[in-house]
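Weekly puzzle thread! Below is a chain. First person to post its structure in C-alpha cell form gets bragging rights.
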Amino acid sequence: MRQLRSIIPLKSRWGSMLALMMTIFPMIALAQAKVERAITAVVTDNQGVETELKNVVFYWEEKVSETAFVPHELHHLPVKRGSTFNNIPFDKIKHLDIKLSGTEGVNVVVTLVNGKNGEFTVTTSGSFRGDSDFGQADVPVKAVSKVVMK
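Winning reply:
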C-alpha cells in the first residue's frame, strides 16, 4: 500500500505535465505556421502578351559553384530604394509597372493594395514563375512590362 501511495503523486505530476504540453504545443505550432496565400497574377511581357500565373513566385537561382545552383522561390519581391533593401510581400502588391534602366537593372513602380506607391530597383535577376493554363511558365523580370496581382 505504501508503494502505491508514492506512485500516485508521480503519475498525477506526469499527467499534469502531459496536459500542459498538450495545451501549449498546439498553440506554439499554430503561431509558427504561417499559411501563404496562393497569389494569382497577370504578367504582361514587353511584347504585350498577357499570361495568367497561378501560385506565382519570384524565382531565382543562386550559383554556389561552377556546377551547383540553389533555387529560391520567394513570395515577395526583393527590391532596393536608396540604401534600403525591402522584401515586398505579393499579398500587399496591387500592381507593378516595370521599366528597364540600362546597366542599373530593372526599375519598378510598386503600387500597394492600400494605394501607396514607390519606385524601386529589383535586386535580383529572376523571373515570375507560376502555373498557367499551358503548364508551368517563367517570365524573366527583364522581359516584363506590367504585373497585376489578383
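Puzzle host: Confirmed. Bonus trivia for everyone else. The longest strand covers residues 50-63.
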